[in-house]
Amino acid sequence: MAAQPDDDELPIIDFVSPMPGFPEHRRFVLVRLDDDGLLYVLTSLHDSEVRFPVVPPAAFFREYAPEIPQDTADLLGVTNPEQVLVLLVITAGESAAESTANLLAPILINRDSRSAAQVVLTGSGLPVRAELVAVA
């Protein structure tokens, strides 16, 4: 993963299409929750109660490299894979060991424009709930 947001900057992320189940929530702020840059939360600017814990996949799923569908790349204005920040939505369990990541539907963010989309990687065979284990 490349650069993470600065502490003094709360980047506004604009979804080009709403996340499934949240049609009126298109603008979010990305907030880092830990010093290591492993845990973030996307919080709706429309309703601060709507928030999604997210992680960059590299620390947990080293081999994870989703293929970006061309229509999504076009929507986001992405011409180079290096422009994309990939985040995985986390489902928190009773403990960290019980938490999972959604590998099937990553959030893709254009680093330059901060436009975003959640894409379902149909036919990939990736799980919706993958065990969240930090890699060494």
| Overall SS class | mainly beta
The gross shape turns out to be: globular
Q: Which whole number gives the mean pLDDT?
A: 88
Could you list the spans in which at least 5 consecutive residues all have pLDDT below 50? 1-8
Summary tags:
single chain; mainly beta; disordered N terminus; 29% strand
Précis, in short:
The protein has one helix at residues 70-76; strands at 12-15, 27-32, 40-44, 51-55, 84-91, 100-101, 107-110, 115-118, 130-131. The chain has one domain (12-131): BH3618-like (Roll), CATH 2.30.290.10. It is mainly beta.
What can you see in these coordinates?
There is one protein chain. This protein is mainly beta and 136 residues long. It is built from 1 helix and 9 strands. It has a single domain (12-131), classed as BH3618-like, CATH 2.30.290.10. It is 5% helix and 29% strand. It has a 7-stranded mixed beta barrel. A hairpin with a 6-residue loop joins strand 3 (40-44) and strand 4 (51-55). The model is unreliable at 1-8 (pLDDT under 50).
Q: What's the structural blueprint in terms of helices and strands?
A:
Blueprint: E1 12-15, E2 27-32, E3 40-44, E4 51-55, H1 70-76, E5 84-91, E6 100-101, E7 107-110, E8 115-118, E9 130-131
Parallel strand pairs: 1-8
Antiparallel strand pairs: 1-2, 2-3, 3-4, 4-5, 5-6, 5-7, 6-9, 7-8
